[in-house]
Design a protein that fits this description.
There is one protein chain. A hairpin with a 6-residue loop joins strand 1 (about 180) and strand 2 (about 190). The chain is mainly α. It has helices spanning about 1-10, 15-35, 40-45, 55-70, 75-80, 90-100, 105-140, 140-160, 165-180, 205-225, 245-260, 265-280, 295-315, 325-335, 340-345, 350-375, 385-405, 405-425, 430-455, 465-495, and strands at about 180, 190. This is C4-dicarboxylate ABC transporter permease.
């Protein structure tokens, strides 16, 4: 392996490849920062332009777009409460409250450092652990996927809201939205109401933009009627105790790598799980969701640690673990490279060069992000009367550009009004978005597990992996109930009759 790395190093640091990585990283940050666009879309658009390039030049640009887009999604999430990519959902929880408190530069700095660390760890894992880690992904059965999806939905519903009932209500809404379209198992239409536009289901970006972009724009418009001031920026440079973030980065990086190697998951799930775990393990967990810096570090580190890890089963087994991994496999095939074990045997300098480019672009992302951070934060200086229509216009253009569909634009605006009403009632919107992602996966995995077992529910609890996840679900549900019971018992004791 070391010989292959040494062979690939001079190729990676050639002028053409470095220029390609710089361009790719810059474009990736811009793509991630624009709501409605994603790394998958950016790479898909790039591939036809790379036909005449050398394979490593093209793959270096692909690596830059991938890493850059995952960080770029945090910029509008922190500044405008609009996740630029689905993986930026969890960054909103604490990033936007920090911006509202005048800590936007600090939040962007934490996001950038955490993203760079997560991407670097992921690239190192890809280089060192690809074959053994890919074997773990093969151990997951459909039953394990079902419990994993259930755990993700339960955790976010219970932990994110002060009222778990409202969190579960939001999750149920997401499950209903997630079943719209054609049933993947039978081909039957579900809740499409004869509308062709709904046959392919409701695009997650439409829901995401509607629930997260439109409500704050409405709030800004309402506030602009009474105040014309823009959001405040911190005038004093805050000192960050980076040492305190080290345990967060370690936990989140490991979690992101593990989630990344499991097909069909992704950075959005890694980010939410990392945020949940950080909140659960912190004694002062009441601060999360209100502008806690570690609540920004954990999801950003995890969703970037997922990037190169997603490519482990893709490169070693030819199994794309996500949509973006599938597009990257397409880029390899375009340049005559066949994913799988033979790729490491026949073209080691290309595959190791590509893996090294994931590490180099993580460093470039930090450098380019630092240069652009000062420009990004000036968005907050715009007055609310100007910022509100800008956000709505950006959301409309972003959604229309996906499929050139006005139906999806109206759908997004409808979800925006729904999200505004949910916020007024104290119902969190994040569980609904996660349920749209995880609900179909849970349903398909459950039905597949029952088909394999001939309808026996015993198959769902046969694996040790399933039992570990079931235990995690039980802890997630029971711990808040126990804490509430203990708190009520303590309050009863303190309010009891005083001694004579």
């Amino acid at each position: 392996m070391f010989n292959n790395i040494l062979t690939a190093l001079p190729l990676i640091f050639s002028v053409n490849v470095i220029i390609a990585m710089v361009i790719g990283t810059t474009v990736g940050i811009m793509v991630g920062a624009l709501p409605g666009l994603s790394a998958t879309m950016g790479i898909a658009v790039l591939i036809p332009l790379t036909f005449t390039m050398e394979p490593l030049v093209a793959l270096g640009m692909v690596a830059g777009i991938y890493n850059g887009a995952m960080y770029g999604g945090s910029i509008p999430a922190i500044l405008l409460r609009i996740p630029g990519t689905p993986a930026g959902i969890a960054t909103v929880f604490d990033g936007y409250p920090m911006a509202q408190k005048g800590q936007a530069p600090l939040a962007l700095k934490i996001s950038l450092v955490s993203s760079a660390i997560g991407s670097a760890v992921s690239a190192i894992a890809l280089l060192a652990l690809a074959p053994p880690l890919a074997a773990i992904a093969l151990k997951f059965s459909p039953a394990d996927y079902f419990w994993l999806a259930l755990f993700g939905m339960t955790a976010i519903a219970v932990l994110l809201s002060s009222n778990p009932v409202k969190g579960l209500l939001s999750t149920c809404l997401g499950l209903v939205v997630g079943i719209v379209g054609i049933d993947a198992m039978t081909g039957a239409e579900r809740f499409s109401f004869g509308n062709i536009e709904l046959l392919s289901g409701i695009n997650i970006i439409v829901l995401l933009t509607g629930l997260f972009a439109i409500p704050p724009a409405i709030d800004l418009a309402i506030n602009s009627m009474t105040s014309q001031k823009g959001a405040k920026l911190d005038k004093v440079q805050e000192k960050v105790r980076w040492r305190s973030f080290i345990p967060v980065w370690i936990k989140s990086s490991i979690l992101g790598v593990v989630v990344g190697i499991i097909p069909a998951l992704g950075g959005n799930i890694a980010a939410v799980l990392a945020w949940n775990e950080q909140r659960r393990s912190d004694p002062d967990n009441d601060r999360y969701g209100k502008g806690e810096p570690k609540g920004v570090a954990a999801p950003e580190c995890a969703n970037n640690a997922d990037t190169a890890a997603t490519l482990i089963p893709a490169l070693t087994l030819g199994i794309p673990g996500s949509a973006v991994a599938a597009v990257i496999l397409g880029a390899l095939l375009v340049h005559g490279l066949r994913p799988g074990p033979q790729l490491f045997r026949d073209d080691p300098e290309i595959v190791f060069g590509f893996m090294l480019s994931m590490l180099v672009t993580a460093i470039l992302m930090f450098v380019i992000g630092r240069l652009g951070a000062r420009a990004f934060v000036h968005v907050l200086k715009a007055p609310p009367a100007l910022l509100a229509p800008m956000i709505i216009s950006l959301a409309v253009v972003g959604i229309y550009s996906i499929h050139n569909s006005m139906f999806e634009v109206w759908l997004m605006l409808g979800f925006g009004l729904l999200g505004f009403g949910m916020e007024r009632l104290g119902i969190p919107t994040a569980p609904a978005v996660l349920a749209v992602i995880l609900g179909p996966m849970a349903e398909e995995s459950l039905r597949r597990a029952l088909l394999i077992s001939g309808g026996s529910f015993d198959y769902l609890v046969q694996s040790w992996i399933s039992w570990i996840i079931i235990t995690m679900i039980a802890v997630t549900v029971l711990v808040p109930i126990w804490k509430r019971f203990k708190k009520q018992r303590t309050s009863r004791g303190s309010n009891g009759p005083s001694p004579q």
